[in-house]
Design brief:
Layout: E1 2-10, H1 14-32, E2 35-40, H2 45-51, H3 57-64, E3 68-73, H4 88-99, E4 103-109, H5 122-125, E5 129-135, E6 143-150, E7 156-161, H6 166-181, E8 186-191, H7 197-210, E9 217-222, H8 223-232, E10 239-242, H9 244-257, E11 265-269, E12 274-278, H10 295-307, H11 312-327, E13 330-331, E14 341-342, H12 345-355
Parallel strand pairs: 1-2, 1-3, 3-12, 5-10, 8-9, 8-10, 13-14
Antiparallel strand pairs: 4-5, 4-11, 6-7, 11-12
This protein binds 3-isopropylmalic acid and magnesium ion.
Amino acid sequence: MIYRIAVLPGDGIGKEITPEAVEALKKVGAKCGLSFEFEEALIGGCAIDATGGPFPEATQKLVKDSDAVLLGAVGGPKWEGLDYSIRPERGLLGLREVLGTFANLRPAKVYPMLADASTLKKEVIEGIDIMVVRELTGGLYFGRPKGIEKLPDGTERGVNTLTYTTPEIERIARVAFDVAGKRRKKVTSVDKANVLESTELWRRVVSEVHKGYPDVELGHMYVDNCAMQLIRNPRQFDVIVTENMFGDILSDEASMLTGSIGMLPSASIGGKVGIFEPIHGSAPDIAGQDKANPIATILSVAMMLRYSFNQEKAAEVIEEAVLKVLEKGYRTGDIMQPGMKLVGTREMGRLVREGI
Ligand code: IPM
Ligand code: MG
């Protein structure tokens, strides 16, 4: 079988990091006897420049016909002034929507050799292994009504709506319990049920679904407390499951525990075709300078192998290669420390391939 992969590099460093992940896949394919076919398409700012919109027809068609999507990053200062409906970020949200990838898995794991790179004390973050399961196609990001309206008195009113239906909560809860079942069997469901009705329903439905998973422990936490606990005692967490925007915020926070956002991959699953991307953005400040860390994107294709293609062995080969390169002391700028060897994007990609 040939796996067909849609490659959407996007903007900024996306253009530099995705080729390294593609090359890593080719290398692991040769080693493990897997074949891939790659086709590139536009998304985000570069798509706006070329076609007038962030998620062109051709890209929509390609992703629907693929077995998986590899995404770089979208956005940049050039497109920040545009109307919301055609901003680069809309391309990403549209992609999630058309593919129905309602579950976003964002692992935050501390590599022992990078424990000193975190801004937090080593003893706080050592051994962290958290999986944030973020609901991705509902909640505050997609709820209606939304928009900005003019009021009769000349002022304006901005609206977004936080809505969830029972089935939407049930399916994300199941993903969280399934993932936890393969890990340390502990789910923390994060809500704001003391204030927001929609998340009171969230809490109730998650508890209901939990009855089908007697071997997994479930706890509930308010989102403000969770933000605090992540810094105070992050090792208490195994799987965190939460609403779209809470997950957006908490996953950035969790990523920083590990030292660099440049290390963390993600998988968006639940639809027919999965999306795999680094959790960081397009980093316009370092774009085009061979400085970006390609590891998050390379680890994202490991997640692709695991979650879309069920190729656990090949996924581990990539993850072990990354570990080896770090053990040898090679670092990109974002994770650089005294005494280590500074390398650029391409060289880091080459070293990982060598490790594969
Ligand atoms: C993320 C990003 C996106 C989000 C933006 C770029 C639309 O922050 O993937 O976390 O908010 O979901
Ligand atoms: Mg985000």
